[in-house]
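Supplementary Note 3. Input sequence used for the single-chain structure prediction.
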Amino acid sequence: MEDNKMVAGKVKKPGKRGRKPAKIDLKAKLERSRQSARECRARKKLRYQYLEELVSSKERAICALREELEMYKQWCSAMDQGKIPSEIKALLTGDEQKIPQSSGGTKASKNGKNSSTGGSTAQS
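The predicted structure, written as discrete structure tokens, is reproduced below.
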């Protein structure tokens, strides 16, 4: 054991233990690394596409809600002036065929349909 060296109280043998990597292993390791990087970029691209689609759908929803809010504001200002909008008249009288179809008016007609048809029954 004259070859062994004492380092921090441990006996250290000369040379490395285990298998020495061959050049083939190095090439395989590089190829695996490249393949992993390609897959990572592909996953990143898909993730960004998903997020962009999510953002655009949320933006469309926001625009639709803004239009609906604007419609309700117009209805309120018309009622403040003493006028009753035709959409509200149609909802109150139950004439739902007279309601013009608009992007924001679909929710109002659904709500009106529930309140006009179920007006005589008890609602929870």
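The first strand starts at residue 5 and ends at 7. The helical segments are 23-80, 86-93, 105-117.
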